[in-house]
Amino acid sequence: MGLKGFILRKVVAACLTIVAIVCVNFVIFRMAPGDPVRMMFRDPRVSAENLQEMRQTFGLDKPLSGQFVAYVKGLAHGNLGLSFSHRRPVLEVIAQKIPATLILVVTALMIAIFLGVALGALSGWKSGTKLDTFVLTASLTMYSIPTFALGIILLLVFAYHIAIFPLGGMATPASLLEGPELIWDVLWHMFLPALSIVIWYVGEYVLLTRSSMIDVMGQEYITTAYSKGLKKFRILKNHALRNALLPVVTITGVNLGFAVAGVIEAETVFSWPGVGRLVYDAVSHRDYPLLQGVFLLFAFSVVLANLVIDLIYGYIDPRIKVST
Amino acid sequence: MNRLSNKIEKLSVFLRLLFSHRMGLAGFSVISLFVLMAIFSSFLGTVDPARTGAVENILKSPSSGFWFGTDDLARDIWSQTIFGSRISLTVGFVAALITVISGTLVGLVAGFYGKFVEEVLMRIVDFFMMLPELPLMIVLAAVLGPSMWNIILVVSLVSWPTTARVVRSQVLSLKERPFVEASRCIGAGSLRLMFGEILPNVIPLMFAQAVIMITEAIYAEAVLSFLGLGDPTSISWGMMLHFAFESGVIARAMWWVVPPIVSIVALIVSFSLLGTAISDVLEPGYKEKKGF
Amino acid sequence: MMKKMNKGTWMAICLMGAFLILFTFSPNALAKKSRLSVGFTTEEALENLQTGEAWQYTEMGAVFWPLVYDQLWIMGPAPDYEPLPMIVERWETDDYLTWRFYLVKNAKFHDGKPVTAEDVAFTLWYLPKSNPAWDYPDNDIEDKSSIKVIDEHTIEFTLAAKWPGKYPPASWMPVLPKHIWMPHKRKLVNFENKKCIGSGPFKLKKFKGGEYVWMVKNKKYWGEVPAVDEVVFKSYGSQDAINMALKKGQIEFIGYNGSSPLSVEDFKKTENVDVAISPGIALVWLGFNLHKENAIQDKLVRQAIMHGIDRERLIQMVYLGYAKPADSFIYPELPIYNPNLPKYAYNPDKARQMLEQAGYLDKDGDGIRNDKKGGQNMSFEFLVPSAWPDEVKLAKVVKEQVKDIGIEIKLKVVDLDTYYEFIYTPKEDKFDISISSEEPGPNGSWIWEFARGYNNGGAGWNQAYYDNPEFDKTLDAMNAETNLEKQKELTFKLQEIMAADLPYAMLVRPDLIGPYRTDKFEGFVETMGGLSTWINVWSYFKARPIK
Q: Which among C6, C3, C25, C24 is positioned nearest to C14, based on CA atoms?
């Protein structure tokens, strides 16, 4: 199989997955109990015409098959429908929340990868020593603590008892700050939620890099490098770490799905106004179009990330190159 | 008879290895503690954890009467923590059981029959593995409504594919082994081959998978409950945190938050340790290294 | 590598330390102008500036629009809750059917255009039509010709039915500028209304949906210009965050519903914070679904349940004593309150006895009585919204108490929107008992519509599927009675029927715990429901900075 065939296969698979996701997404939400249109009104004295009109607005007056066609058509035009609770296009509501989530995730992920890979490489390099055991146990523990539990603890300690961080939100409400002051304010708000995500990730990346490092260290080319008399540091940098990073790259893609979990938890605990919190709010308002939209967004980004990672992997993995 | 004793021998070696593994022992001990706690909840818990208490006992800090203090309905936190282990462990074990059995079946069938069957099943597995887990669980739990059984269902629905994939790759290598070929030659049917010859050899793997699944199920139950998707009338650790978080007084009532968090973390960490130990022990060559 | 690594780690640690130190000095905006900041939760926050449900059914919306828009008349503060003219000088009526309002002459919208009778006529006709919203019995006008613009500052309209009583019609209704809304008259609800041009004492400066509303005082206001320069409604992610903001002085008081009883002691200890404990505006009651075929339909069972509920314990457990027992839709401090209603004192023995005598016996010995008709267990679904933590707690206590008289209650906790959908469709039998809560307010005759029979136009608010022709007759008579004394008698009768029949069983009236800061502002106005509610925006009009 050539590189082209490989790419083609991956792209086709990703497309099929997306189609399946769209179908599943549609089906799940039709299983939900209750009449979403009637739920939109707190005032029960809605006339039948108004209900009917609302149904038409939201495309709920058609039979299921018709709804599905309309849904797919809408999707093709980038139209995810109207949010019940916000009364605005779903896409708009989500788009508004994406930056907040991106800031949080990217920051947390970068710090975590850096720390995790460094500690993991060190631990793997020094495998068997006391340092290694310590790092390993610590990572395993960090990795096992649910983000929301960690978040609550951080909140209690650093926002209540030693009140040096805010209780939540992304910025001081209506602070009307601008420029650098605003950036400081956001960073200050971001510290605890980011930390709760980072801790979880560091654990994971340490474990991963470490085991991959140990694998690589046992390989022949490392032993050869040693026998050539190369310096330890150069071996680590040029040979060991480079190869050990391959699985780390893969897992970053696979992990996006899990990243989403951490984000939902952290955003809920710290009332961070991002997509994760939106999921929670959409659930509590039974805002199906919104929930559908967010779910699609998550699923799409995971599929896409995996595709990209697969392609990168195909490009850098020597074994795939060899087979071309 | 010979075969049975052979198996018992294998099992005892496995257990000895596991208990000589530090992480395994530590994890196993803590888990046993929680299991005992769940079984003997009625004796350990001082009062009915759901029963509201006397007015003067609302939100009291730990004391000799209430070892872990009380919550905002004067309910005993100690008893809640004890009884909470029941829900966590039930969800963990039942969900893991369902997940591992269904996952193994799919993996077995896919790996054994290969070709078209495999292609179809594995595409489904791939598809499920692509879906972001927690959002999917949230969506399903929201649609199905709050109850412990729904959470079990949701967790099982979402996590079986991992097992299926792992089992399949094991089956792929097993079915080429001579002993399977031998059985095939003497005319064993597909079912006999799958369940009689291959399955027994997958069991250790299922065991390891089960431990991982328990961890995930316990975590999922805690998160979903915390997010308000659990059954508000039952008392689980996640639910305790949910109520504490909603009360608006967690700053003052650390004792309400710490026990469930410590319990969740302890249980999950123990299962992770056990899981790590099991996968170490199952690794080829480990036995020899330890001198068995 | 080792050395480098270490350096990196150290640098990271140092950086984190530096962050920590820097962040402890949280940014503090300089307050040159007097800015009154008020806290809401994110759930209470206004998402958009459209009229309709966002303005009526979100807490922030219900307080926001009365600041930016003028009303014909406004409810005065406690204790009298007199109707006070707002953008009118006076009003008159002879028959309580046709009403004439005389507008003030110098009122202007924020964009400089004068407020005229045309604007009032426009709002009166189109706002109630902007269904599903703003549709109250006191603005029910049947056809357009019933609204007459007499001259630029005089308007006359004829209601579909008489509106006698203490309060004039068209209550709690903003006067919308016709020149802006006219193009959207078919669908007022859909107009984005980004500028929010009104004629009220405050002008909108900046708005961010779900986050904040920033208002400045209208210096050119035709009436009394507020003393504070700016009002900012801020939304916080949780009740904890609001409490903390108040302690730190980032807000002056809580915008709606106050704080939890559990936090009272804490606030009392806080410097520069006082706690106003006001009588509540919300009433909490049990709604019985009388449509569903089961023992709940038996009045006696409902009465027995009420005898089985220990309200004193409810009040202590759930509200730490900060609540009063309730027995009527009418608040006890109002003159139309009937003091002689049956109180259903806690008496489990009596409750058990009532059930025994009526034939509800525990035949299978499982501790739960059996229905005398079908023989099934008397086990009822109790609908509670998860968004109301106090009511969830209350339901748990009620469940235990009712268990003692042999009736089982199964809690059905659902999200708020599902809850509303279920309780307003009693015919679909999705619950047996529900917990309900409303804020009737002093001008609360609309609350009786909750019990109007389905055959008599009551579909809608009637959650109980209650149907009593005698009640409906009394209600119609009360609504039409122009003699205040006679109207009071009829209201007394309504209360009696309700308390005897128990379609709704009143439980408690929770106090409002309103912590507020005392260091920057003074002159906050307290009414039932606290410092800031849909019937009380006086705190914003009257607050002044402490010099």
A: C6
Residue with tokens 């560091």: A202
CA distance B148 to chain C (A): 14
- Contact predicate B88/B264, CB 8 Å: yes
Sequence-distant (6+) residues with CB within 8 A of B118 are: B110, B111, B168
Asked whether the beta carbons of residue A45 and residue C20 sit closer than 8 angstroms, the reply is: no
Do A299 and A233 sit in the same domain of this protein? no
Chain B contacts of A266, Cβ < 8 Å? none
- The CATH label, of 2.30.110.10, 3.40.50.300, 1.10.10.10, 3.90.76.10, for the domain at C70-184 is 3.90.76.10
Q: Which amino acid makes up residue A51? A: L
Q: How many domains does chain A have?
A: 2
Per-residue model confidence (pLDDT) at position C29: 43
B30-39: average pLDDT:
93
Q: B117-126, B144-153, C15-24, C352-361 — which is least confidently predicted?
A: C15-24
B227 touches chain C (CB under 8 A): no
**Across the 324 residues of chain A, what is the mean pLDDT of every consecutive 10-residue run?**
76 86 83 72 74 78 83 83 78 90 90 89 83 86 87 89 85 79 91 92 86 78 71 71 74 69 88 88 78 86 81 64 40
Q: Which CATH number covers residue A193? A: 1.10.3720.10
pLDDT at A321: 45
Cα–Cα distance for residue pair B88/B218, rounded to 1 Å: 6
DSSP assignment of C322-365: -EEE--SSS-TTSTT--TT-------HHHHHHHHHHTT---SSS
Q: Give the minimum alpha-carbon distance from A231 to chain B in angstroms, rounded to a whole number.
A: 31
- Whether the pLDDT of residue B106 is over 90: the answer is yes
Mean pLDDT (10-residue bins), chain C, 547 residues:
45 53 46 86 88 84 96 93 95 94 95 96 90 76 92 95 90 94 87 92 92 94 94 89 89 93 90 95 96 93 96 94 95 94 94 94 91 90 90 93 94 86 90 94 90 87 93 93 92 96 95 95 94 95 92
Distance CA(A216)–CA(B285), nearest Å, equals: 18
Whole-angstrom distance, CA of residue B140 vs CA of residue A28: 7
In a shared domain, residues A204 and A294: no
CATH superfamily entry for domain C33-69+200-277+515-547:
Periplasmic binding protein-like II (3.40.190.10)
C74: nearest Cα among C87, C61, C86, C90: C86
Q: How far is B255 from C382, CA to CA, in rounded Å?
A: 31
> What ipTM was predicted for this assembly?
0.84
Is B246 or C503 the better-scoring residue by pLDDT? C503
The DSSP secondary structure of C279-306, one letter per residue, reads --S-EEEEEE-SSSSSGGGSHHHHHHHH
CA–CA distance, C121 with A267 (Å, rounded to integer): 47
Domain that holds residue A68: 1-85+285-314
B-C interface: how many C-beta pairs under 8 angstroms? Answer: 50
Residue-level pLDDT at C30? 45
Burial C492-510 (b: 16+ CB within 10 A, else e): bbbbbbbbebbbbbbbbbb
- How far apart (Å, rounded) are the C-alpha atoms in residues B255 and B257? 6
User: What is the spatial distance between Cα A314 and Cα A308, in angstroms, rounded to a whole number?
Assistant: 10
pLDDT digits (tens, 9 = 90+) for A159-177: 888 888 888 888 887 777 7
Is residue C288 a contact partner of residue C504, using CB atoms and an 8 Å limit? yes
pTM of the model: 0.86
- Judge whether C245 is closer than 8 Å to chain B, CB to CB: no
